[in-house]
Design brief:
The protein has one domain. 40% of the residues lie in helices and 18% in strands. The protein contains three helices and three strands. It has helices at residues 14-35, 44-47, 96-126; strands at 54-63, 75-84, 90-94. Strands 1-2-3 form a three-stranded antiparallel beta sheet. Helix 1 (14-35) crosses helix 3. The protein starts with 13 loop residues before the first helix and ends in a 15-residue tail after the last helix. The chain crosses the membrane at residues 12-36, 99-121.
Length: 141
Amino acid sequence: MSDRRPPRHGWRTLPGLLLPGLVALVVLVVLSTTVWPGQATVTRHVLCDDARPDAFVLYEEYDTGATIESPRGSTSIRFTMQCVSADGRTEDVGWLRPVALVAALYAVLAIPVVVVARLVLRRRRDRPGPDGPPISGGPVS
């Protein structure tokens, strides 16, 4: 009889780990950028050139107009990041690139935390309990 464990399936395979991680990352980025859109300015060092070193997030709210479905009209919100020079010249960077870089930063910060947590949990799970087999493998009295 072998002491080997059966192969792991389900959530412990690579796609089973990546999919929930990706979903959690998307939710984290969407919620955090909704609450604090200014966090996208941390990407200014990558996206803004030396001539326009300052970054600002613009919040634009506009009326989309009345339609048959919505006779009173609706309001849309758009975020964009702009790089600004000392004399006021701007360059529109958009919103996708800053948010994608923020998501990459979150992923880089989260991966070591998740790996360490999984290692700690695995070590706790593999440790023999009080009724488990003896460490030396000798007879139990």
